Amino acid sequence: MDATGREMDRPAAADGVATQPIEVELIAVLAAVADGSPLVMTIEGGRALPSGSFGVEHRSLQSGLRAWVERQTGHTLGYLEQLYTFADSDRRIPSNGARAISISYLALTREERLAASQAAWRPWYEYFPWEDHRAGPPAQIAAEIAPQLARWAESGGDPSVRRRRAAIAFGLDGRPWNEEFVLQRYELLYEAGLIAEARRRLGDADGLPLGAPMIGDHRRILATGIARVRAKIKYNPVVFELMPPAFTLLQLQRCVEAVSGLNVHKPNFRRLIEQQQLVEETGETMADTGGRPAKTYRFRAAVREERAAAGTKLPLTRA
Amino acid sequence: MDATGREMDRPAAADGVATQPIEVELIAVLAAVADGSPLVMTIEGGRALPSGSFGVEHRSLQSGLRAWVERQTGHTLGYLEQLYTFADSDRRIPSNGARAISISYLALTREERLAASQAAWRPWYEYFPWEDHRAGPPAQIAAEIAPQLARWAESGGDPSVRRRRAAIAFGLDGRPWNEEFVLQRYELLYEAGLIAEARRRLGDADGLPLGAPMIGDHRRILATGIARVRAKIKYNPVVFELMPPAFTLLQLQRCVEAVSGLNVHKPNFRRLIEQQQLVEETGETMADTGGRPAKTYRFRAAVREERAAAGTKLPLTRA
DNA sequence: ACAGATATGCTCACCATGAGTATAAGCCAT
DNA sequence: ATGGCTTATACTCATGGTGAGCATATCTGT
Predict the structure, then answer these.
(1) Which of A17-37 are b and which e, b meaning 16 or more Cβ less than 10 Å from the residue's Cβ?
(2) Which chain B residues are Cβ-neighbours of A162 within 8 angstroms?
(3) Which segments constitute the NrtR DNA-binding winged helix domain (chains A, B) (predicted)?
(4) Alpha helices, DSSP H, located in chain B
(5) Closest residue to C20 by CA to C1' distance?
(6) Mean pLDDT of B149-158
(7) Which nucleotides of chain D are near protein (any atom < 7 Å from a CB)?
(8) Do A101 and A139 lie in a common domain?
(9) What is the separation, in whole angstroms, between the first and last Cα of chain A?
(10) Residue by residue, what is the 3-state secondary structure of B137-175?
(11) What is the CATH number of the domain that holds A27?
(12) How far out from the chain centre does Cα A258 lie?
């Protein structure tokens, strides 16, 4: 941390480097799903994530953010977790150039009409078109991304390392696509100068930049959030935060598919949900599905604590 | 966790919105394992985690912390990840009462002689004696914790809710013990006033406080770190960061047991490690094991990228 | 009535996992 | 050297979760 290694023994003190004021800002990745499209709440015409200063008036980060989001959406927030704290030394508040630390949060909710006019839901695949594989791998990957990454790989560093990184991230050369590597993919494209945010620093590369840009590193934060939801959805029943109180199993499946960007095997998905007893029937059916009416279900809230019991991956001996 | 707002003891700030300076501090949970005992690096006689101010000179949090830790341990740091950012409104720097935000990191390394004399490794179960179940559930749980939590449950709030919380956290009433609930257990004991840190605020409860205390909320941060390692060890080959370059399978097993605080089924553990091809034989054997000499293994670094391929939990359709 | 769509139920093979047993190869005390 | 102790290593067997696919039910619209 410092030259001697002893500085850390003391709590941050007055000595040494004059402390430049540090701005602490909160950034929210607020996600919802509507009609098979995953959405993120944005401001400034879709170019920024909602953010605010971490002022003294907030009792805690969490509750302050929750209150703010609930004012914005007019809907109580189901799920809120801390995402990551971004604090690279070159992060600056655009307005005054102060050093900025951004503490980001991930929030899940149902889509609701927005109370404030500045904010708007945007499909998150506008920002990451290469992340939606529900209709197969997007043509853009083979047509634009792979060739440009190949050119980047040969242009510096260790080409074989770069090629492998690209192949792992994007599932090239017969490797499987891993939907969780959202951040790695974004950072790779950034490094390769293929997205607009990177070109502010690097010289222009060929071709058009990929996906819709955002200010600062907001898109990177969004990538972090998407990666987190995609990972969490697998071992934690957070999907239900995105669902209305009653829903059909296909709606639930479509929601999972929207988030993960992948297609799910219908019979096995139903079996999984049912055998894990995540839901219970409401007794109602929903008729306007285009086919046979579907039973509707609700989330079994009791699962949350039962889940306590679940899930070892270590081969234990019985006590 | 923090029951009451203590806006009172805030130094008289310029009124209202005026931004009070916020101290940003880094805290490290640096873990190692030696001789079947998991260790954490501490300072101040084991009463604090190493911490330091986040100054302007640092390129980024991560690299600054890495450099500092490597000077302390004289060993390159294998693994470093951000843990959590603590920023409740009543967190204060002890010396000057400034508002403090602490960004905590988890680092894994092999135990090494320390370069600096102020720092020392401590067994982490000194701070959380109830977390070590390798010799069965600690007697302390049934003898002290359960009865005191039972008394607490009846003393306020909704007793049935409190009882269930306690039972889930500590595996009471026939519920299974979940080794990952380190933080929930600590926070429960804190709320119940059974640990020293809580008694600074609450009135004294009966009996002795549980486990060795730390300053501020360092023990809570340590709990967060332990929970993270215990979770991560299951789906990510981070254990190897705690191991020497060559090791026997039993040593590896003991390391996992030390971290998780649980006993592992030996044949199945070996099968798991081998079939996942996490390791490869070195060709050497180790004789001083007290029995038949054991083959030694090394971690297959190639796994890290192969792991890219691994692990879906969603029932996908084939593309 | 029939086509088309979705809902729902069921089968079957395979493999990871939990649990336990058996044999091999060192060391040490007698 | 021998027998007993300790650890290493290999195998078995039942069970249950998972991947993949098929079959039947019940709507709407023509």
Answers:
(1) eebeebbbbbbbbbbbbeeeb
(2) none
(3) 239-299
(4) 61-73, 139-140, 146-154, 159-170, 182-191, 196-199, 218-235, 249-260, 266-275, 303-306
(5) B267
(6) 94
(7) 5-12, 17-22, 25-28
(8) no
(9) 44
(10) CCHHHHHHHHHHHHHHHHCCCCHHHHHHHHHHHHCCCCC
(11) 3.90.79.10
(12) 12
For strand C, is any atom closer than 7 Å to the CB of B267? yes
Give the three-class secondary structure for B228.
helix
**HEC readout, A154-181:** HCCCCHHHHHHHHHHHHCCCCCCCCCCC
Higher pLDDT, A56 or B210: B210
- Cα dihedral B318, A163, B299, B134 sign: negative
Q: Burial, A14: exposed, middle or buried (Cβ in 10 Å; 0-12, 13-18, 19+)?
A: exposed
Interface contact A168-B305, CB threshold 8 A: yes
Distance CA A147, CA A195 (A): 15
Tally of domains within chain A? 3
Residue with structure tokens 């096995």? A268
Here the CATH number for the domain that contains residue B252 is 1.10.10.10
Spatial distance between the Cα atoms of A312 and A308, rounded to a whole number of angstroms: 11
Gap from B239 CA to D8 C1', Å: 22
Hey, what's the torsion of the CAs at A36, A37, A41, A47, to 10 degrees? 180
pLDDT grade for A8, boundaries at 50, 70 and 90? very low
Please enumerate in sequence order all residues whose Cβ is within 8 A of that of B228, keeping only pairs 6 or more positions apart, or say none.
Answer: B81, B83, B106
How far, in Å, CA of A124 to CA of A136, rounded?
Answer: 18
Q: Angle between the B159-170 and B182-191 helix axes, to the nearest 10 degrees? A: 140
Instruction: Indicate whether B140 belongs to any domain.
Output: yes
Distance CA B4, CA B27 (A): 24
Contact (CB, 8 A) for B283 and B308: no
Highest mean pLDDT, choosing among A142-146, A287-291, B155-159: A142-146
Q: What is the pLDDT of residue A90?
A: 67
pLDDT digit string (tens) for B248-297? Answer: 999 999 999 999 999 999 999 999 999 888 999 999 998 877 888 999 99
Put simply, the answer to whether B43 touches A2 (Cβ < 8 Å) is no
A135: tokens are 């209709």
Task: List CB contacts (< 8 A) between B271 and chain A.
Answer: 315
N-terminal to C-terminal alpha carbon distance within chain B: 47
Q: Is A135 among the domain residues?
A: yes
- Whether B97 has a pLDDT exceeding 70, the answer reads no
- Cβ-defined contact of A315 to B2 (cutoff 8 Å): no
Residues in B touching A99 (Cβ below 8 Å): 56
Are A115 and A133 found together in one domain? no
Domain enclosing residue B251, as ranges:
243-309
Most confident of A169-173, A235-239, B125-129: B125-129
Q: Is residue A216 part of a domain?
A: no
- B49-62 as b/e: b if 16+ CB within 10 A: bbbbbbbeebeebb
In this prediction, residue B195 carries a pLDDT of 93
Average pLDDT of B150-175?
93
Q: How many CB atoms lie within 10 A of CB B235?
A: 13
Neighbours of B173 (CB within 10 A): 11
CB contact under 8 A, B319 and A269: no
* Residues (258-277, chain A) with CB within 7 Å of strand C atoms: 266-267, 270-271
* Tokens, residue A173: 């050369």
